[in-house]
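Review this fold:
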Amino acid sequence: MSKEPAKREIKQERAARTRVEILEAAITLFARRGYLSTTMSDLAKAIRMTPGALYWHFPTKEDLLLAAIEELHQRYRAEFLPLLTERRSLSGREQLVFVVSRTSQFLRYHREYGIFFGMLSAESADSNDRVAEMLREKIALYVEVLAGMIRYGQKRQEFRAEVDPVHMAHTMMGGYLGILLHHNLFRAVVNYDPLMASLDQILSGGLHVRTPPPG
């Protein structure tokens, strides 16, 4: 019996592992240095690969960047989608509290993921339409999930009716990305958790229905 299929599977598995290693290095370097300042040679050195081998996997730096955006998007989906499905029976406020808490925790341990999106958003908005469009497409999906929770909470009269769900969701996304970039600059003197807690307080105050004081 021919061993060719087995060899082919091994090669495919090795290539898949190498691809993941490349994307992991790209996400880290793009988050630290930005897209414009990171070269394919930098990426090749980071994963101990020749530039020629790297170009075999990704013909251009833009191709690599777009693949890194898609990879991160899939990681976010894997982290949040099953959990969100399990909690659909909760109130709008409980769903939002869960997402906010989980997002803060997730970005605490993977801050380069958020910085990656923040850095790319700033760099690509006026310089690379293809990258900017892909970022908008992915972030819009997260915005729609948040906006849906806000609409649900409004129907249950948990959230203020005058709040625009889409604009509030965009504000939340922008707030998280901004906090990560800000903390990255001030991390020697400012702690991450209080920053996130302060942002959550501001957002919650703008959403929750205000109850009149007793008496």
